[in-house]
Amino acid sequence: MPWCTDCDRFLSPSTVSEDGSCPACGRQVDDSAAVGRKDDAEALPPVPWHLKVLASGVVAYLGWRVVQGIVWLID
Ligand SMILES: [Zn+2]
């Protein structure tokens, strides 16, 4: 996430000028990708596919339990 130290705020990548400067003050923003640091990318890796499968399985199981509970209440 680009950070402008002069404006003291984060900038969305789409609002940063093409040359990497802040649109408000024109200062070069501290974009970790631009200066070559990969810390942010390593701190937030993409969600592994098996976690998505696990999460969807849990949601499906809980949904099924809710259906069972409703059927139990009706009976
Ligand atoms: Zn700025």
Features:
75 residues; mainly alpha; two-stranded antiparallel ribbon; 2 helices; 2 strands; 41% helix; binds zinc ion
Please provide a written account of the structure.
The chain is mostly helical. The chain has two domains: 1-44, no CATH class; 46-75. Helix content is 41%, strand content 5%. It is built from two helices and two strands. It has helices at residues 39-43, 49-74; strands at 3-4, 9-10. It has a two-stranded antiparallel ribbon. A hairpin with a 4-residue loop joins strand 1 and strand 2. The longest helix is centred in the last third of the chain and has 26 residues, at 49-74. It is elongated and about 70 Å long. The mean pLDDT is 84. The structure holds zinc ion. Residues 4, 6-7, 22, 24-25, 27 line the site of zinc ion.
Chart the SSEs and their pairings.
Layout: E1 3-4, E2 9-10, H1 39-43, H2 49-74
Antiparallel strand pairs: 1-2
Brief rundown of the structure:
This protein is mainly alpha-helical and 75 residues long. Helices cover 41% and strands 5% of the residues.
